[in-house]
């Protein structure tokens, strides 16, 4: 298990290339189950979550090849039950339910446990499958869905926390081979849902409205193989923008989609940073002043919950009082206790963090918990006095491709230590 040592006080400058999106690649790889033909997916990031998904697909019987960022998948004959020992490691494995149900009319996956960012139910996914005619059985920690046939339906997928990203993905993947037309109301509008829809359309699916709250799917008899390049990872990009805001003197991100990041660049501009967006690139520079913020995380196009921890790290040393509320995962504040160990002055009130900016944080040994909280601690360490030791770095490696190497190339001093 590695740990990383972040030597504070270095300034960042230069250019960083953004990788393909983890949260787009995962459902797209699962969607390859919907055809017996070969699919070729490029710009797939080299992450442990991707490795888990490829292992699950192999265990289900797919032929899987990976050559650097290009994955080739052929799902000629597949099993319908995913292996527990891998599924339990990654909640996103739940997105194999939809394609297996669509293709084989049955699927079994272990129920995703809760995780550090809060309860992770899949009731909305199951509501969608039942609306398409599937029976759902929960037994011995597994969820089994099966349907003699799938029929198009009108489905509302909104829950008390708003839309569901993987739920929208799952129902869309089950509906593309159903008889008749399916309407998903209250659909997630994230760019990753649009990217999945574009891949399914390339495979021969008939889908309209992806990226809006209402997606209409006309079922077809079968899908064929396709090629697809995954969109840039907007959360990796946002993480580097915040790193550059914390201790940068001008950093440019390339191979990025600025329109996917408006909900992040706008608050950074309000906080006083100079943002310049161009074709596939964004440059951030320090501004004349720094301002505290009021931030509310909401489903896309709102401010992303996956950027909430990173912004707390920035606001911890922003003069004034900032207020950050997570309306998607109200418990997603594991990073707060660790930031306070570094000297941050933050109080939690339910789903809201009240952040009183301090002059400087101090380096300390801290514990990574979830993917984004871990990234936030690395960012906080960049600007802290002394050394910040981030343990359980495997959390970061789940969602960031070589984040330490990319930050070091910008001028950071981060060591990865084997323990
Ligand atoms: C996706 O998770 C992302 N993961 C998460 O990113 C991201 O935080 C989340 O969407 C929200 O944007 C992937 O895409 C692999 P949801 P997902 O279903 O789809 C509740 C990261 O750091 N809900 O949109 O699992 C749920 O509890 C990860 O990269 C139900 O109540 O999230 C939450 O409060 C972390 N019932 C809200 O909806 C359901 O059936 C949004 O969850 C499903 C969800």
Summarize the structure.
The chain has 419 residues and is α+β, with helices and mostly antiparallel strands.
Which helices and strands occur, and which strands form pairs?
Layout: E1 2-7, E2 12-17, H1 22-31, E3 38-42, H2 48-59, E4 63-67, E5 70-74, H3 84-87, H4 97-104, E6 106-110, H5 123-131, E7 135-139, E8 142-146, E9 154-156, H6 165-175, E10 181-185, H7 191-202, E11 206-208, E12 214-218, E13 227-229, H8 234-247, E14 248-254, H9 262-270, E15 274-278, E16 281-285, E17 294-297, H10 308-315, E18 321-326, H11 334-341, E19 345-349, E20 352-356, E21 365-367, H12 371-383, E22 387-391, H13 394-397, H14 403-409, E23 413-418
Parallel strand pairs: 2-14, 3-13, 9-10, 17-18, 21-22
Antiparallel strand pairs: 1-22, 1-23, 3-5, 4-5, 6-8, 7-8, 10-12, 11-12, 14-16, 15-16, 18-20, 19-20
Helix pairs in contact: 1-2, 1-7, 4-6, 5-6, 6-7, 8-10, 8-12, 10-12, 11-12
Bound molecules: ligand EPZ.
Ligand EPZ binds at residues 23, 26, 91-92, 119-125, 159, 161, 164-167, 188, 305-306, 328-329, 371-372, 399.
Describe this structure in words.
- The protein has 419 residues and is of the alpha+beta class.
- It has two domains: 2-19 and 232-418, Enolpyruvate transferase domain (UDP-n-acetylglucosamine1-carboxyvinyl-transferase, Chain); 22-229, Enolpyruvate transferase domain (UDP-n-acetylglucosamine1-carboxyvinyl-transferase, Chain, Alpha-beta prism).
- It contains 14 helices and 23 strands.
- It has helices at residues 22-31, 48-59, 84-87, 97-104, 123-131, 165-175, 191-202, 234-247, 262-270, 308-315, 334-341, 371-383, 394-397, 403-409, and strands spanning 2-7, 12-17, 38-42, 63-67, 70-74, 106-110, 135-139, 142-146, 154-156, 181-185, 206-208, 214-218, 227-229, 248-254, 274-278, 281-285, 294-297, 321-326, 345-349, 352-356, 365-367, 387-391, 413-418.
- The strands form six sheets. The protein has a four-stranded mixed beta sheet, covered by helices on one side.
- Strand 4 and strand 5 (70-74) form a beta hairpin.
- The model has no long low-confidence stretch (mean pLDDT 96).
């Amino acid at each position: 298990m590695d740990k990383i040592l972040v030597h504070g006080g270095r300034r960042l400058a230069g250019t960083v290339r953004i990788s393909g999106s983890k949260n787009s690649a995962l459902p797209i790889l699962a969607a390859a189950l919907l055809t017996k033909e070969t699919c070729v997916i490029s710009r797939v990031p080299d992450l442990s979550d991707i490795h888990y998904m490829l292992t699950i697909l192999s265990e289900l019987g797919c032929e899987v090849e990976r050559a650097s960022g290009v994955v080739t998948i052929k799902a000629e004959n597949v099993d319908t039950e995913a292996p527990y020992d891998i599924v339990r490691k990654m909640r996103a494995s739940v997105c194999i339910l939809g394609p297996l149900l669509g293709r084989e009319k049955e699927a079994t996956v272990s129920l995703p446990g809760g995780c550090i960012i809060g309860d992770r139910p899949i009731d909305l996914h199951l509501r969608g499958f039942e609306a398409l005619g599937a029976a759902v059985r929960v037994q011995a920690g597994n969820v089994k869905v099966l349907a003699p046939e799938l029929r198009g339906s009108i489905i509302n997928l909104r829950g008390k926390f708003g839309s569901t990203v993987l739920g929208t993905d799952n129902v869309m993947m089950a509906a593309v081979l159903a008889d008749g037309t399916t309407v998903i109301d209250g659909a997630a509008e994230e760019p990753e849902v649009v990217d999945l829809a574009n891949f399914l359309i390339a495979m021969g699916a008939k889908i309209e409205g992806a990226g809006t709250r209402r997606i209409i799917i006309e079922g077809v008899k079968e899908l064929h193989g396709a090629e697809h390049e995954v969109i840039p990872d907007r959360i990796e990009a946002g993480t580097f923008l915040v790193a550059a805001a914390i201790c940068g003197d001008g950093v440019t991100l390339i191979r990025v989609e600025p329109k996917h990041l408006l909900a992040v660049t706008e608050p950074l501009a309000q906080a006083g940073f100079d943002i310049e967006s161009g074709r596939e690139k964004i440059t951030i520079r320090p501004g004349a002043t720094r301002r505290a913020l009021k931030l509310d995380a909401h489903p896309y196009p709102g401010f992303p919950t996956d950027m909430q921890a990173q912004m707390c790290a920035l606001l911890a040393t922003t003069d004034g009082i900032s207020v950050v509320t997570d309306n998607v995962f109200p418990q997603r504040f594991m990073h707060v206790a660790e930031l306070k160990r570094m000297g941050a002055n933050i109080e939690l009130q339910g789903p809201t963090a009240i952040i009183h900016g301090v002059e400087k944080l101090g380096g300390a040994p801290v514990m990574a918990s979830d993917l984004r909280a871990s990234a936030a601690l690395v960012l906080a360490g960049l600007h802290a006095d002394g050394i910040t030791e981030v343990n359980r770095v495997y959390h970061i490696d789940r969602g960031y491709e070589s984040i330490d190497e990319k930050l070091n190339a910008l001028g950071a001093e981060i060591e990865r230590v084997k323990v």
